[in-house]
Every structure is written in C-alpha cells, then in structure tokens.
Specification:
Three copies of one chain form a homotrimer.
Chain A (H helix, E strand, L loop, with lengths): L1 H11 L1 H4 L8 E7 L6 H19 L4 E7 L5 H5 L4 H12 L3 E5 H6 L15 E2 L2 H10 L3 E3 L2
Parallel strand pairs in A: 1-2, 1-5, 2-3, 3-4
Chain lengths: 145, 145, 145
C-alpha cells in the first residue's frame, strides 16, 4: 500500500514536471443539463472537475462559464439544502466561475428563480443551448461531462 | 402562484432586453447518439431544445445540422409511429435543420433506410463521428445534450 | 431480406461516392469519462466509433487523442482481463491513436497506474478536463459519445 501510494504520487506529481507554458490561457464553457438518475452525484462530480480544472491551469489563466439548462437547473434547487454543493458553488464563484441559467427551462418547468441558490437576474440567459453556441463563437471551448 | 408566474415572466422576459446583436450568426452541429434508457424522452428533449435554439437566435441567423448515429438513429424509427416526434422533425426541417444519418450505423444494425421516417439517400453520411469532426472543421460549433 | 441487404449496401456504399476531398485533415479529441451503468458496452461502442472514424477519413488524415478521466479510466482496468477491449486498444494505438489518462482521477480513486492496461508514465496528463481544453486550443475538435 505504501508502495502504491508512492507510485501514484510519483505519477500524479508529473504535473509539477510540466513545462511552465504547458497551458495557454483558456476560455471554457461547461454544459450542465444534469446527469440523472443520480443528479446529486453528477453535480458533485461536475463541480469537482471544474475545481480540478482551475487548480491545473491556474485561476488567472482560465475563464470558465457553466451553462445550466434542463435537468442541470436542479443543481441550484438542491444547493438550497445541500451544504456541500452550495459550498462548492460559492468556492467556484469566488474563483471567477460564472453559472448561467436558461430562461426557457425556468418557464417550461415553472421554476421561480428566487428558489434557486445564489442565482440572480443577471445570471439568466434567454436560451441555454443558444448560449452554448454563442460562447463557442466567442472562443470558449466546450466540455460536457 | 400568480406572483410566481409574474416573477418567472419577468425573468424569462429578459430575453427581450438582450441587445439586438446579442447573437451573431451561428452554425451548430448537434450530436445525437440517443439517450437511453428512455430514448423517446431524450429525443423530445433534443428536438425541443433545437426549436428553442432557433426561436432564440432567429431561423435566418442559425444553421443547424443534427448528426444521428448509434442509438440516435432510433429517432427516425420511432417517428414512423410517434406522431409528435414526426411533427417536430417536420417542423424543424421546415426551418432549415438538416438531419444526417450514419451509414455505418445502418450497416451494423442492419437497418433498411426506407424504414426511417423522412430519411432520403442524400441524408446519409459515411460516418457519423467523422461528420461531427468534418462539420466542426467547417466552423460548426458542437452541442451534445 | 435480400432486398433489404442490397438496399442497405447501396446506401452504405455511398461513402465510395464521396468526392476524394470530402474530408480535410482532422485533429480530434474524444472525451471518455465512462458511460455507466454498463461501462463495458460503452467502451466497446467508443472504441468501435473511433475505428470507424479512422476508416472513414484515413489514418494518415486524422490525428486522434482520447482523454480518459473519472469513470473512463476503468477502460484500462477492464482491458486487463477483457481480451476484446485490449485488442481494440492495441489496434487503435497501432493506427496512431493516443490514450491520455488523468492524474487527478488516479489520485482520487487511489489507482495504481501499473494496474492499467498499456498505460505508461508518458500517457498521464495532470488533469483530464484541462487537457480537453488544452487540445481544443491546439485545434482539436471535440467529440463525446
């Protein structure tokens, strides 16, 4: 077990061996439309991946937006009672991540935006999918877990 | 309930407050390889999202292609009997959306293309995945629900 | 049945009718984070799609990298005993495909990389998601089955 840990450390430590310019500046849009049947597990995995992404590239070198529509909007409903998800959202926002919520989803699902954790009017976009295309047109690259 | 509806309307109405040039012209390829276990629900969600996309950007400002392979080809089998999916496909085509079907999937699954709703020979592409890459190389941005 | 087969052949044969310059040179990154609940079926479908991709475009005209993180890393654990997956991995590598494994996933899941089929130290990248963005910034287009 000790040997395994050392080996794993040696592999994962490779990141320190990357040249300083391994990552150029990045603009990234994450697509979040949920990951049922277990949405909570999906949201934790998503938020953890974004945190790892920032840690790898450095928060001053990566601009991240998360477009949330369809089942993805449940993340902000769940965060009202799930302290861990709420804390991860807060931590990512403090590092500059912006979470954008689809107005079409709110209307179709009859969701009152005031019931969404940490979402304000300026976080609402007219259409999640159109926003995904708009941001890619502005140079953001796309990732969908 | 009335208050909620008004609030939701106020939020979703924000789209009208977007500047006229919020969206530039878009070219978008949707990746459809199905969304089991409930493919029907997935296809309805996909077609609804594409309709919302066009409504947001305007049909003269967005060119949309849908690459259908693997489980995604079932959409055209289901549409033979599901009137709602057939109607949504027709409506999207009337707005310029093109649905492309993977020849490899037809061969591997022994699907006779004449059993697919609304698919003609010119809608068949040699390989769905190669087409996704080809279209991105031509400036289409990628969305996979 | 014979008629169906002939018809299908006629459709799938359309690829031979594509103009010789139908595909330009491609650089493609596949995103593999698993596809539970049936990961084995997902991995076979993924590897089959990549093989079809190469066959369509030609191995000298397409450069493919597969970024494996989260549940996607199980592909290399399964390949230790699943001869079919191992053989497909070997065949794709022989055609130039590179499989990259996320160091964060190895650390979080306590996976000893020596237990992964065919993975060497130079296949490990610091972060799977950051690598997906990095490669897109280098002109690779993104596909996630």
């Amino acid at each position: 077990m000790i040997a395994l840990t050392v080996l794993a450390a040696s592999f994962s430590g490779r990141s320190m061996a990357e040249p300083a310019d391994y990552y150029k500046d990045q603009k990234v849009v994450y697509h979040n439309d949920g990951g049922g049947p277990d949405n909570v597990a999906y949201f934790k995995r998503l938020l953890n991946s974004i945190q790892n992404h920032i840690a790898a590239v450095g928060k001053d070198r990566v601009e991240i937006r998360v477009v949330d529509h369809s089942g993805g909007v449940e993340m902000f409903q769940i965060a009202k009672t799930d302290k861990e998800i709420a804390a991860r959202l807060d931590a990512l926002k403090a590092q500059g991540v912006r979470f954008l919520v689809c107005a079409n989803t709110l209307r179709e699902r009859n969701i009152d935006p005031s019931t969404l954790y940490g979402v304000t009017e300026r976080d609402i976009v007219p259409s999640g999918v159109a926003e995904l295309a708009r941001l890619q047109g502005m140079g953001f690259v796309y990732i969908h877990l």
